[in-house]
Amino acid sequence: MSKKLVAYFSAGGNTAALAKKLAAAAGADLFEIEPAVRYTAQDLDWMNKQSRSSVEMSDHSSRPAIAGTKSDLAEYDTVYVGFPIWWYIAPTIINTFLESGDFSGKRIILFATSGGSGFGKAADNLRGSAVGAEIIEGKVNPSDSDIKALAEM
């Protein structure tokens, strides 16, 4: 039996709620990807081109610092990674997380929250940060039945 981890970044709480449901359904451990410096409402103002999130997302090489790493990644075969969709991709803090450990040989199943878009190029943009891992698009805004299906993957 494989060991599972649900790792997530949540800016407003929506992704966190789904991550907790998924972890319970999958019998998985839970890890919050926390920025070293929390995002404020002003930081998340996507209408302001000078806001922190806008600046980070305009520079795909941006790697916001995370508060802590998951040192026991070797224990997991499957890692669910959740995030809000920003500019049709994952926030660059997800790249920071994936680059903070060795994900080679692991299955990474993505799930996301979004106000209206799909995964866009999220999976493609994450592959270079998790070399040797299999990245699978799961669901955006998963329903309870979708969470059950994700948990069984």
UniProtKB/TrEMBL annotation:
The Flavodoxin-like domain covers: 3-140
Give this protein's Gene Ontology molecular function annotations.
Answer: FMN binding; oxidoreductase activity, acting on NAD(P)H
Would you say which domain of life the source belongs to?
A: Bacteria
- Identify the species of origin: Ruminococcus flavefaciens
Q: Which InterPro entries match?
A: Flavodoxin/NO_synth (IPR008254), Flavoprotein-like_sf (IPR029039)
The record's listing under Gene3D superfamilies reads: 3.40.50.360
Q: What is the protein name stated in its UniProt record? A: Flavodoxin
Q: Which Pfam families match?
A: Flavodoxin_4 (PF12682)
